[in-house]
Amino acid sequence: STGPFTDVVTTNLKLGNPTDRNVCFKVKTTAPRRYCVRPNSGIIDAGASINVSVMLQPFDYDPNEKSKHKFMVQSMFAPTDTSDMEAVVSTECFLLFF
């Protein structure tokens, strides 16, 4: 599409966990100033799924811009021996595992 991109454009991404263990996830993009992702990290319970909203922020379209924006969803099994699950999905934790 060529715009105009004067309003937020939102789509939903459904993340599912078909396993019998809780899974942590984190969503990353090559264009973090262009997109708002909510939630951008979290925990998906065993056998459950969640919806993640990906929102393209308003901007001035430039036809000369090479915009090959990419997204990556990182995931890992949640540790079973932690009481602070928010710490599990922190950037530092994912840096240790990825």
UniProtKB/TrEMBL annotation:
Domain MSP: 1-98
Stored PROSITE patterns: MSP
Cited function: Endoplasmic reticulum (ER)-anchored protein that mediates the formation of contact sites between the ER and endosomes via interaction with FFAT motif-containing proteins such as STARD3 or WDR44. Interacts with STARD3 in a FFAT motif phosphorylation dependent manner. Via interaction with WDR44 participates in neosynthesized protein export. Participates in the endoplasmic reticulum unfolded protein response (UPR) by inducing ERN1/IRE1 activity. Involved in cellular calcium homeostasis regulation.
Biological processes per GO annotation: endoplasmic reticulum membrane organization; endoplasmic reticulum-plasma membrane tethering; response to unfolded protein
Keywords of this entry: Acetylation, Coiled coil, Endoplasmic reticulum, Isopeptide bond, Membrane, Phosphoprotein, Transmembrane, Transmembrane helix, Ubl conjugation, Unfolded protein response
GO cellular-component term (any): endoplasmic reticulum membrane
Transmembrane feature ranges: none
Subcellular location, record wording: Endoplasmic reticulum membrane
Protein name: MSP domain-containing protein
Chief location category: endoplasmic reticulum
GO molecular function: FFAT motif binding
Top-level taxon in the UniProt lineage: Eukaryota
Entry similarity comment: Belongs to the VAMP-associated protein (VAP) (TC 9.B.17) family.
Membrane topology of this protein: Single-pass type IV membrane protein
Keyword Ligase belongs to the record: no
